[in-house]
Amino acid sequence: MRRIAVVSGGNRGIGLEICRQLAGRGIHVVLASRDAGRGSAAAKVLAEQGLSVEARQLDVSDEASVAELARGIEAEHGGADIVVNNAGIAMDGFNAEVARKTIDVNFFGALRLTDALLPRMRAEGRIVMVTSGLGDRRSLSKPLKAQVGKADLTRDELIRLMRRFVDDVAAGRHTAEGWPSSAYAVSKMGLNALTGVVARELAGDGRGILCNAACPGWVRTDMGGAHAPRSVEEGAETPVWLATLPPGGPQGGVFRDKAPAAW
Ligand code: NAP
Description:
It is a single chain. The protein is 44% helix and 16% strand. It is built from eight helices and eight strands. α4 links the parallel β4 and β5 (121-130). It is globular. It starts with a strand and ends with a strand. NADP nicotinamide-adenine-dinucleotide phosphate binds next to α1 and α4.
């Protein structure tokens, strides 16, 4: 049976290249994009290269859009085999609104899409979180570092921590509370921790689903800028590797260049 992959933020940058590489392996790719027109245009380019790709609208910050995508995947394909949580934002500046939006897209967006598709995932499914080297816990205070990195951290504890960061920024106390002044960094720490949470929740699930995070490195995209050292092909390599892991592969880890990365 043909495998189905869903890639968020698939219309440009690393996400588009992940779509290209997965489709190049004979996987049918659902290129999910916030803007339907931009998604269709990107999917058309890949289809013209002979790849099996369809576009679907998906705004990971919009619960209804996520639910609609999940319904469509179920109706059209009966489920999914691969979910790549690639959609992300890196906003200019730092204030309460930047913190709220960044955590909402980069952390809660991945959680929403994973929760919506997980019940519809088939055996040996793969979930990939596209994270960043900036999601390093060293920039947290000692107590926060311990909380985020707790081996038995639960989803409720993690969600409370992410909400606390947003509240602390809004109240002007985030530095005193031990957070760095980077919403992007905190969102990716949250995503790394979420990878472990989802992996632990999958214990005993029986479907052999693996959930891991990939840091693409610094990549030449709209987000990474023209001077980044890596191409999108290089940036997509580790996410695609994790998306196509053979049975018995790693679970709950953070990887860079296909090797475990400290965070
Ligand atoms: P990019 O070129 O800015 O593309 C970001 C993608 O995410 C776009 O498709 C964008 O859609 C989509 N997106 C943003 N908000 C969304 C939302 N609410 N719902 C659905 N899609 C949304 O960035 P990139 O460099 O390819 O980055 C891809 C991933 O890699 C991100 O998670 C990023 O944090 C991570 N990353 C990148 C680098 C780097 O150096 N580039 C390094 C480390 C990690 P629109 O086109 O509609 O805006």
